[in-house]
Amino acid sequence: MSDAAPPRPPLDSTSLHGLTGGRVSYDVEVVAAAPSTNALAAARAQGGAAEGLVVTAEHQTAGRGRLDRTWETPDRAALTLSVVLRPDVEPALWPWLPLLVGVSVARSLRAVGAAAELKWPNDVLLDGRKVCGILVERVESTDGPAAVAGIGINVSTTAEELPIEAATSLALAGLDVDRTALLATLLRTLGETYTGWLADPAALRAAYADLCATVPGRRVRVELPDGTSVTGTTRDIAESGGLVVATERGDMTVNAGDVVHLRTAEE
Ligand code: BTN
Fold first, then answer.
1. Mutate-to-test residue for ligand 1 from 31, 36, 58, 64, highest number of ligand atoms within 8 A of CB
2. What pTM, to 2 d.p., does this model score?
């Protein structure tokens, strides 16, 4: 018999007023339901929303995942939010944004006692299972390009509610975390990490690698967007933010794909 879902209090929007993190002043909008907070925040950004706009939904009905997948979470069981950022950096640095968001989430989860790690590029894992997914999308607007940083963290989701076996939640890892407090910690940490990166972009590479379970020396299979895959041993994170994998044909740098951490028996 499955356990009933735990009581799930709503987000307390009043305690999210006036939040800041580094250079970012947040304007947090809490909605009961939305198809996708990324879609909502992207529309706002296209309309000129300033950096720091946050849209968070108690429930998403058509959440978007990476590589055209969907993202499903029950009402009030997860944190699902999107943050508008307007980074004034050269185009070559934009691919670091998803990794930067991953670092911010991992740091925030560690702050509440979860031993979070990253799987390249930006899945956040707890005990080897995915607890958070991140989707960063770029939108053009008359005020210049904006990044919409979408974050979904499974907070009180039960095993029965998780869409895939390889997923987990903070509750399943034994952590009873208040969503409003976690959101405040996350926004502060994201703002600080982002502001530090704008000042010194190169420093993020080492910070990312420190939190990343994929590098170095890990046997992996990388499933590429064109349907092919490569198997090898990870070496490093490239300057571009890509994953450097030593394969039978030599080193290759992967810039997009899904990583599977392999045990020797799985090859
Ligand atoms: C992934 O596939 O791992 C990325 C999932 C990203 C989900 C979040 S939930 C909030 C935001 N809004 C969306 O529609 N997607 C992102």
1. 64
2. 0.96
